[in-house]
């Protein structure tokens, strides 16, 4: 039998207030080991979808009003964000959301807070983070607020990795970064995926998203209007016209 999806939404509907439906009746899966991208223009519902998976939708005044969310076959609809982190569903916040007045190392320690790690395990994970991100090792005692935009995005990813995630939720990992840094971040995400972590990525930059992803879904006003393998979508005239600059 095929194993259950790492993450699955069925009939998912997310609403803000009494009338704004941000996501409507959406079916989506992240299979084990996959990188899945969500494309779509401003206001399409991408961030709301990510919040529904992370459990953060309520803290933004929204609600899941229909459908179910499963993690490896178990329903997590309505479970708290903390419980989801303990299960391995971990959001990488946008880079600018690191704790600027705390050091790099303190930011990383916070990433593991849900796991109640012993000192030895904490050190193992910090060492692993500094191995993957040498630039963070060089700056472990510096305030995170003094890092460059690219370094802050790396710190956000490294912090999420401290929780030893099963699946990462990424919101616009390339936003505001120079092309060279976007390449570096992409390479790190690829290496993390190769080591076994599945990913759901919201990304305005369709070039970046379709390079990284195995599959993608295109959202428009809260509904999935197209989905498929990234290679097929890259070759699709519709996608090229709408998202890849029409070349
Ligand atoms: P963007 O890339 O601009 O963030 P998006 O595809 O991520 O767009 P969402 O941010 O999920 O889309 O927004 C989907 C719809 O939900 C929009 O109509 C938006 O105005 C509305 N919305 C999003 N967040 C909230 C909120 N906190 N309160 C009320 N309405 C919201």
TrEMBL record:
<dbReference type="InterPro" id="IPR052156">
    <property type="entry name" value="BCAA_Transport_ATP-bd_LivF"/>
</dbReference>
<protein>
    <submittedName>
        <fullName>ABC transporter ATP-binding protein</fullName>
    </submittedName>
</protein>
<keyword id="KW-0029">Amino-acid transport</keyword>
<keyword id="KW-0547">Nucleotide-binding</keyword>
<dbReference type="InterPro" id="IPR003593">
    <property type="entry name" value="AAA+_ATPase"/>
</dbReference>
<keyword id="KW-0067">ATP-binding</keyword>
<comment type="similarity">
    <text>Belongs to the ABC transporter superfamily.</text>
</comment>
<feature type="domain" description="ABC transporter">
    <location>
        <begin position="7"/>
        <end position="246"/>
    </location>
</feature>
<keyword id="KW-0813">Transport</keyword>
<dbReference type="InterPro" id="IPR003439">
    <property type="entry name" value="ABC_transporter-like_ATP-bd"/>
</dbReference>
<dbReference type="GO" id="GO:0005524">
    <property type="term" value="F:ATP binding"/>
</dbReference>
<dbReference type="InterPro" id="IPR027417">
    <property type="entry name" value="P-loop_NTPase"/>
</dbReference>
<dbReference type="Pfam" id="PF00005">
    <property type="entry name" value="ABC_tran"/>
</dbReference>
<dbReference type="InterPro" id="IPR017871">
    <property type="entry name" value="ABC_transporter-like_CS"/>
</dbReference>
